[in-house]
Amino acid sequence: MRVLVAALLLVPAAALAGSSSFDGTWKTRVDTLKVSGKPDSYLLADGTYTCSSCNPPLSVKADGAEHAVTGHPYYDSVTVKVTGPNALEITYHRGGKTIGQESISVAADGKSYTDRFVNHDGTKDVTGSVTEKRVAAGPAGSHAISGEWLQDQLSGNDALTTVAYEMTDEHFKMSANGQTYDARFDGKEYPVVGDPGHTTVSLKRIAANTVEETDHRQGKVTDVIRLATAADGKSLRIEDKDLAHGQTVTMTLDKQP
Is 2.40.128.20 the CATH number for 13-36+160-255? Predict the structure, then answer.
């Protein structure tokens, strides 16, 4: 999912001894999600699909056949099928199994596209859709998906939007759709259990209501995430600096009863 506030008052350590403002289940308010920074960049031309903004970049034949790729933490082969001048389907595989699909449709005016997706990696399937707006056109004669885009809207089921946290003065726990971590505030890396990309996290407690999480994958820092609960404890603001993609993602989550 990447500062959030100009300054925060530190509270006495004793205030952390009991339950914290993070404790509980949270749900993303999808209408608050904002993405800024480098656009997503795609090119579909001469029978080849290229995602130059993917990390690492992805380039495969768009012939409906499965093609092996290397260096990607979550998949090892990809199938791209052109289903129309404004549409395509992308299927991701790992270890011989299908782990996700995207069905992409570019609007008739070419100014936006909608991606309906499903991912099978978690305890429950993640389903939803994302809409991106065009910020630059693709080359003449290329498929309608070609060009540069920036995410605009997101919707999804509870498996996508729900997360639970717990904090004490010693550690911070996260649980979301079969992925968990329990990390201490000591700067060391701790594994995200259940993550097929083998992400590790290191944590800093900035204040009683603010935590900074640094994500590591394949030996690199991929994200620096600031989490801060509101004074009333009813909402949680997240800012994710996605270093791997050069984007910043912000969103607000509401505490669930």
Answer: yes
Q: What is the 3-state secondary structure (H, E, C) of 178-223?
A: CEEEEEECCCCCEECECCCCCCEEEEEEEECCEEEEEEEECCEEEE
Whether the CA torsion 130, 131, 137, 141 is positive or negative: it is positive
Record the pTM.
0.89
Q: What is the pLDDT of residues 103-160, one digit of tens each?
A: 999 999 999 999 999 999 999 999 999 999 999 999 999 999 999 999 999 999 999 9
* Measured distance CA(122)–CA(74) in Å, rounded: 12
- For the chain, what is the largest distance between any 2 Cα atoms, rounded to a whole number of angstroms? 65
Side chain identity at residue 181, one-letter code: Y
Phi, psi of 166 (to 5 degrees): -150, 135
User: For the chain, how big is the Rg over CA atoms in Å?
Assistant: 20
Question: Measuring CA to CA, which residue among 59, 79, 58, 76 is closest to residue 68?
Answer: 76
Alpha helices in the chain (DSSP H): 158-161
Q: Which residues make beta-bridge pairs with 237? A: 228, 252
- Angle at the Cα of 149 (from 144 to 153), degrees rounded to 5? 110
Reduced DSSP (H G I as helix, E B as strand, rest coil) percent helix, strand, coil of the chain, to 5 = 5, 60, 40
Domain boundaries, given as residue ranges, for the chain: 13-36+160-255, 39-157
